[in-house]
Design brief:
The complex is a heterodimer of chains A (886) and B (477). By secondary structure, chain A is an alpha+beta fold. Chain A has 29 helices and 19 strands. In chain A, strands 2, 3, 4, 7, 8, 9, 10, 11, 12 and 13 form a ten-stranded antiparallel sheet that branches. In chain A, strands 5-6-14 form a three-stranded antiparallel sheet, with helices on one face. In chain A, helix 4 packs across helix 5 (104-112), helix 4 runs parallel beside helix 6 and helix 22 (708-719) packs parallel to helix 25 (803-818). Chain B is an alpha/beta fold and 477 residues long. Chain B has two domains: 63-225 and 286-475, 3-Layer(aba) Sandwich (Alkaline Phosphatase, subunit A); 227-283, no CATH class. Chain B is built from 14 helices and 18 strands. Chain B has helices at 5-12, 22-29, 38-44, 75-78, 83-87, 130-133, 152-161, 171-179, 236-257, 261-283, 291-296, 304-321, 345-369, 435-445; strands at residues 63-68, 105-108, 115-118, 123-126, 139-146, 189-193, 217-220, 326-329, 376-381, 385-391, 395-399, 403-408, 416-418, 420-421, 428-430, 433-434, 454-457, 460-463. In chain B, strands 1, 5, 6, 7, 8, 9, 12, 13 and 16 form a nine-stranded mixed sheet that branches. A three-stranded antiparallel sheet of chain B has the order 2-10-11, with no helix packed on it. A two-stranded antiparallel ribbon of chain B has the order 3-4. The longest helix of chain B has 25 residues, at 345-369. Chain B is globular and about 80 Å long. Chain B starts with a helix and ends in a 14-residue tail after the last strand. Classes of the chains: A alpha+beta (886), B alpha/beta (477).
Chain lengths: 886, 477
């Protein structure tokens, strides 16, 4: 095994020494302790740290969006644009709010009555439609670099990541108050009263999946470096997505520009380091349910009666029991620890040192010595002397993960006493949980024997490092394990029993009831009294619900602070940094943390009423999505290097209004899209181009290219192929569309993605959906609040030649021809309404008639055939009117 | 907004050039592949030969061909001749061993194939590369390269992007960003995909935070080189009619709804795509190359992988000829897991050498004959080398501590060697060269100061060379 703390070294050479010296200078100039860096001065000088201002308006003119915008326009001698044409405004509203074009009937009705009331009604319909969440969730997914795989060499799947996508869609559709949304992201697993849906499923915990959309190396030579890089990315998301601040810039030194110290960074580091990866169940825990208790208690009684009434099954057992009675009592079955042994966790002392992340192991350990063997359908008793955490007592389909406290690896060997089937023991060092070959294979052991044995791990390479032992009886837990890449390989009926975790200098495990094939009692030796109980027990087991669905989530480890890494190098640790929030907002005092990671307290600090960052950040993002440009353009960075807001008073008013209305995103959207500013025309004007060429003052609406998802979803919508089904596992992308490389998904998907909206297409880091990628779906590695809007030939080539685009035009042509139409003009008009939400103009009609005539002639077809219409519709989707919203 | 990169570009250009207006940027963006040398756009109107005109300093070269050897070739068997390694074959390895990926380290493993001195320069090259050996006097060999990572993916990201994690722009993207393309109808960065995509995936060729137009376009070697490049509409009359109708509707749209720079840019982009439908298939059509030349590249070789790689090398020349800035070749699959010979070294290494040997020699000869070698940098190398001690009995593990890469053309000093490893070829001891140094030197030859080619992202001005890199003056002619 490679030694840790000894990665490939680069600074061997004179050239690098010079750089080192440069950094040393840097460090002394602005020390880690804040010397030469006046955080308070920076805080005071930059707008974003200041409290939200109250709008100063006359009492008879309450603040409005239009009021703020017009004030600046008037001051510059500009006037707002005229209202956009009703069909233009309506198409804009649909594309912005639900990411789809309006249906022709909707357009006709609105154009017939484009009143204020009709507009407001459209706004409400769209905000209430499930498609709203599908579009706006995607904006958030960009911020948390949502992906369903881990990237790197083999692009391992992150099991059940898609459930997070559905969580976000539900949250947006339900208009979950944004403060609650953030709280769930920071500490959804810790809330005393988690939010539950109508099925009783835990919603809150699901938000914490966002922490795990981080790239994961397999077999990093230096796990600690990997942890530092991972947490850097996680802090980057916290900082940019929630706070609009580039907190992660303070990893190696105090922030170069903002009021964020390097100490702040490592204070936050501690919260993340004190948390770990689990597949969290979302179904309500059933350890307290009568069926669960019945099943567990039933087994207990069964074992007792059987053991006390039956004759010994194996004479060796009696001999053994007489010779060493102390070994078989529940508390001492492990025997005496030797010098150099350390009990890290024992089921005999269940109240300390253990963390449950599921219900399977029950509220208390099983105390033997006889135990029903869940492997077999027929009940057999086998010998499990001592106390064992046992996941199979109530039924072997119970699933869960049991973890130890974080412990330092201070002995070379780790001995774990365990039995089970299709289960695993995984040592997580430095939070690295993609535990597999070539380097980490020895830390991931399969348990597949019903008789208890010692599992011995050699941890020589990781001495001194913090670790957690995960005892896992759970499908989908083990990302990176090839057997879990295929769902059909997932075992659901394994079980695991764990008695003790012992650190030791000795390669030999401590003495225990070792060395003999342990006796068991087969079913046919069971007395009648036992057999009578069985029917009821079987019924109780059958009544237990199926294993809970799970998803990646956070769970607490033992809480611990991190040391500041001098120059960002984990090999040069400095002073310990007590966990707390940014000092510019919450001061330098360590946070009072009740237990564990402290994320509950961190969530409180982030959402403190005097922290202006989360609200300014979110309302600025909403504005960005409705105008194509935030009031501050740099939506992920409101710091010194970001763009100052064009309308700071409007930004603050929107933020206060947002809070006053229950942190409601829908409220703020409604507020904005009802304004004349949103509804005005996007047509450029000479005076505006001269005075306000970048349209910073919003003298008109902006022209915007549709986002990747809206391009593809529009094609589905106009062709009639769009399926309105919500949620569920992602649709694989077609194999032929991606380059062959390692980790290529096993399953290929249909060209049309089953008509599902783009948000449901699989997001695999190394195999991004090519069409969406061409239209700037971001690579998921860092928060992207403002997508690039590129203009590359791949986009035009896609619209010209991609099989999906042609398929949509074919289906659209078939539908168009199947629908009744009075004449040619009516049919053309219907196509126009569908594509552009308007009727064709006379010159367009004329051109299309000529085109269809020529197409028929060129092809030898007739106007009743689909071919000329396919060609026409293909032209329509290639026009810029189709892919832009005005 | 689509003019997003503009302010960043301004920063990149350090205020030394006029600030383009938003409309200029958008118009420029319509040039698609040539979009980004804002310098060129502002100074020469967005087209034409930009060579040497707007660099930080006079350029010595225009183009780069990167012969990327996926998996980490065993340069102790190919270029880095060590008599001591030969002599100690089979003995316990005499130096302390660093941790390796598989930690299954055996004894000293000497090269199985004979080394000879070649050409007037007397460079040592193995008998495994007889054709390349004839090119010895063209090669500038660096025998002391070190890398920061010993696993493939990190090392590949590092070699390509100067950073060990996913998400940074590739060297080809940086160069396209800095210099643009001399061909308006082709991407500035083309990856000729022989069949294997390296660990790390296509992100090795990505634009990262740079504008997407700079990312490497993967050209396939079988079928159509680019996705959706072949016009689906087979009827030329109808095709013409469709083009006309789209143009008519688009221009009517501008008339009726008012001009919009974004839309005008997209219209021109659409026209560019039409041009590519014509030019890209022409590019890959080798029917006008002479049979003698095809044979020189190995296109008639018995070994299929040699034929594929020969075709890649020939296409690389054709791309460079057409003004494509950066061409990277990935390897075909020899069935021995790239150059990653953890085992079966005696079989895998000869296969890989046979695959690339004749094509690369032909490429150098052909570039020279056409006067292109002088302005084209050819870079040969993998993400790391391999250990001088065995993994198992017939393999070598990863070795980032000292390995060989070579350059040719583009103003690199021909027929020379630079740096050296210890007596076993294990670790660089004399003039160690870092990947960042190679990046810096290539940029330098292209007329770019690696410390001034920056892009603001996430609050920092980022570079290909991060905060490292030194131009290797001794390598330059």
């Amino acid at each position: 095994m490679p030694r840790h703390g000894q990665p490939v070294r680069r600074r061997l050479f004179a050239a690098s020494l010079a750089i080192g010296a440069l950094f040393a200078t840097d460090l002394s100039a602005q020390g880690a302790d804040g010397q030469g860096f006046d955080l308070e001065e920076r805080r005071q000088e930059h707008w974003a740290w200041q409290q939200l201002q109250t709008a100063k308006t006359a009492p008879d003119a309450p603040p409005t969006v239009d009021g703020f915008i017009r004030a600046r326009l008037t001051a510059t001698g500009l006037s707002p644009a005229a209202p956009a044409a009703p069909h233009t405004a309506l198409r804009r509203l649909w594309l912005d709010l639900v990411g789809l074009p309006p249906a022709p009937e909707t357009v006709r009705a609105f154009v017939a009555d484009p009143s204020e009331a009709a507009w407001n009604a459209q706004v409400d319909v769209l905000l209430d439609s499930p498609q709203f969440g599908e579009r706006w969730a995607r904006h958030w997914l960009d911020l948390v670099r949502y992906a369903e795989t881990l990237g790197h060499e083999f692009d391992f799947p992150l099991p059940n990541a898609w459930r997070y996508r559905d969580y976000v869609i539900r949250a947006f559709n339900a208009d979950l108050p944004y403060d609650q949304f953030l709280r769930e992201h920071v500490a959804g697993d810790l809330l005393p009263e988690p939010r539950r849906n109508e099925n009783g499923e835990n919603e809150s915990v699901q938000a914490t999946a966002a922490w795990w959309f981080v790239e994961q190396t397999h077999s990093p030579v230096d796990a600690r470096q990997h942890q530092a890089d991972r947490i850097d990315n996680q802090i980057d998301v916290l900082g940019k997505a929630m706070l609009g601040m580039t907190v992660a810039c303070a990893r190696c030194h105090d922030h170069k520009f903002d009021a964020i110290s390097q100490a702040d960074y490592y204070s936050l580091f501690g919260f993340v380091k004190s948390s770990r990866y689990v597949q969290a169940p979302i179904a309500p825990a059933d350890t307290t349910s009568p069926t669960y208790r019945d099943a567990r208690a039933g087994h207990h009684r069964l074992a007792q009666i059987w053991a006390s009434t039956a004759a010994p099954a194996n004479p060796r057992w009696d001999t053994l029991q007489r010779a060493h009675p102390e070994r078989w009592s529940a508390s001492t079955a492990i025997g005496a620890l030797r010098a150099g042994d350390r009990m890290i966790a024992s089921a005999a002392t269940p109240d300390t040192g253990w963390h449950h992340t599921n219900d399977a192991f029950g509220a208390a350990p099983w105390r033997g010595p006889w135990c029903p063997d869940p492997t077999s359908d027929k009940p057999e008793l086998h010998l499990l002397p001592g106390a064992f955490w046992h996941s199979g007592i109530a039924g072997r389909r119970r699933e869960g993960t049991l973890a130890t406290d974080t412990f330092e690896i201070s002995e070379r060997y780790l001995h774990v006493r365990a039995a089970g089937r299709q289960a695993r023991l995984v040592v997580i060092v430095d939070g690295f949980h993609v535990v597999r070959d070539p380097i980490y294979g020895g830390l991931n052991r399969r348990v597949d024997r019903a008789e208890p044995q010692w599992f011995t791990f050699d941890l020589k390479a990781w001495l001194g490092r913090p670790a957690v032992l995960h005892c896992i009886d759970q499908v989908a837990h083990d990302i990176g394990d090839p057997i879990y890449q295929k769902e059909s390989n997932w075992p659901t009926d394994g079980w695991l029993a764990v008695a003790a975790v012992v650190g030791s200098d000795d390669e030999e495990p401590p003495p225990a009831e070792l060395g003999l094939r342990l006796p068991y009692r087969p079913w046919d030796t069971a007395p009648a009294a036992v057999q009578q109980r069985l029917d009821g027990l079987a019924a109780a087991q059958a009544a237990l619900p199926a294993p809970s669905p799970t998803l990646p989530a956070l769970a607490d480890s033992s809480g611990s602070d991190e040391q500041l890494y001098i120059r960002g190098n984990h090999r040069t640790p400095g002073a310990r940094q007590p966990r707390r929030f940014l000092s510019a907002l919450a001061g330098n005092e360590p946070m009072s943390i009740r237990r564990g990671s402290g994320r509950l307290e961190l969530a409180d600090a982030i959402l403190a009423p005097d922290n202006p960052l989360p609200t300014r950040t979110i309302v600025n993002r909403i504005w960005h999505h409705l105008f194509g440009r935030g009031l501050s353009r740099s939506v992920d960075n409101l710091g010194v290097l970001g763009d100052p807001p064009t309308h700071p008073d409007l930004l603050d008013w929107l933020a206060r209004d947002f809070v006053a209305h229950g942190w409601s995103i829908k409220h703020t959207i409604r507020r904005i899209v009802r304004s004349a500013t949103y509804r005005q025309s996007s047509r450029s004007r000479t005076d505006g181009e001269r005075t306000d060429p970048a349209n910073l003052l919003l003298h008109r609406q902006n022209v915007r290219r549709l986002e990747a998802e809206a391009v593809r979803d529009s094609l589905l919508a106009v062709s009639g192929e769009l399926q309105n089904e919500l949620y569920g596992p992602s649709i694989p992308i077609p194999h032929e569309s991606v380059t062959h490389a390692r980790g290529k998904p096993r399953r290929s998907g249909p060209i049309d993605g089953d008509g599902r909206r783009s948000v449901y297409l699989a997001v695999r880091r190394n195999f991004m959906p090519p069409m969406l990628h061409a239209f700037d779906l971001p690579t998921p590695f860092a928060p992207v609040g403002r997508r690039s809007v590129s203009n590359v030939p791949a986009q035009a080539l896609t619209l010209l030649n991609d099989p999906f685009v042609h398929l949509m035009c074919e289906r659209w042509a078939d539908r168009l021809l199947a629908a009744p139409a009075a004449d040619l003009e009516a049919r053309i008009s219907q196509a126009w309404q569908t594509a552009f939400a308007r009727a064709p103009r006379a010159d367009e009609l004329q051109r299309v008639r000529e085109f269809l005539r020529a197409a028929v002639a060129a092809d030898g077809t007739t106007i009743a055939d689909a071919a000329p219409w396919r060609a026409l519709l293909h032209c329509l989707v290639n026009t810029k009117e189709f892919t832009f919203r005005r | 907004m689509s003019y997003g990169p503009a302010s960043d570009l301004r920063a990149a250009l350090a205020g030394s050039r006029p600030t383009p207006s938003r409309r200029e940027v958008l118009r420029a963006a319509a040039n698609g592949f040539a979009m980004l040398p804002l310098a060129d756009l502002v100074h020469s109107g967005g087209g034409g030969n930009s060579h040497g005109g707007n660099r930080h300093h006079p350029a010595r070269a225009k183009n780069v061909i990167f012969l990327y050897m996926d998996g980490g070739p065993s340069t102790v068997d190919l270029f880095d001749y060590k008599p001591r390694l030969e002599a100690d074959h089979g003995k316990p390895f005499a130096m302390p061993m660093e941790p390796t990926q598989f930690q299954n380290n055996g004894n000293t493993l000497g090269p199985r194939w004979k080394f000879r001195q070649r050409g007037e320069s007397g460079q040592w090259i193995s008998d495994l590369l007889p054709h390349l050996a004839t090119q010895a006097d063209r090669l500038c060999v660096i025998r002391s390269v070190v890398a920061n990572f010993s696993e493939h993916t990190n090392a590949n990201y590092f070699l390509h992007t100067g950073h060990g994690l996913q998400g940074r722009p590739s060297m080809g993207a940086w160069i396209g960003y800095g210099l643009g393309s001399d061909n308006q109808n082709l991407p500035s960065f083309v990856v000729l995909n022989g069949g294997l995509v390296p660990p790390g995936g296509i992100d090795c060729f990505h634009s990262g935070f740079l504008p997407p137009a700079t990312q490497g376009s993967l050209f396939r070697m079988a079928g159509d080189p680019l996705a959706n490049i072949r016009a689906r509409e087979q009827n030329p009359t109808l095709q013409r009619r469709k083009v006309d109708l789209v143009q008519a509707l688009d221009s009517a749209g501008l008339t009726n709804e008012g001009g919009a720079a974004e839309i005008e840019a997209a219209i021109r982009n659409h026209e560019l795509a039409f041009a590519m439908q014509r030019d890209v298939p022409e590019l890959t059509d080798l029917s006008n190359e002479s049979p003698r030349l095809l044979s020189m590249y190995g296109l008639d070789d018995d070994y299929e992988q040699t034929r594929i790689y020969g075709r890649q090398c020939l296409l690389a020349r054709r791309l460079v000829e057409r003004g494509v800035r950066f061409v990277e070749l990935t390897c075909p699959n020899t069935g021995f897991d790239r150059w990653d010979q953890h085992n079966k070294l005696d079989r895998g290494l000869p296969k890989n050498c046979h695959m690339i040997d004749q094509p690369i020699a032909a490429l150098l000869t052909d570039l020279e004959a056409r006067g292109l070698l002088d302005e084209t940098i050819v870079l040969f190398g993998g993400e790391f080398g391999r250990t001088p001690f065995a993994q198992g009995s017939n393999g070598r593990d990863h070795n980032p501590f000292g390995f060989t890469m070579w350059l040719a053309g583009g103003g690199f000093r021909p027929g020379t060697s630079y740096g050296s490893t210890d007596d076993y070829g294990y670790k660089a001891v004399e003039n160690p060269v870092e990947i960042h140094d190679i990046h810096a030197t290539i940029l330098h030859q292209l007329g770019i100061d690696h410390e001034r080619l920056t892009y603001r992202f996430g609050g920092r001005d980022l570079r290909l060379t991060d905060v490292y890199g030194h131009v290797l003056a001794p390598l330059l002619a």
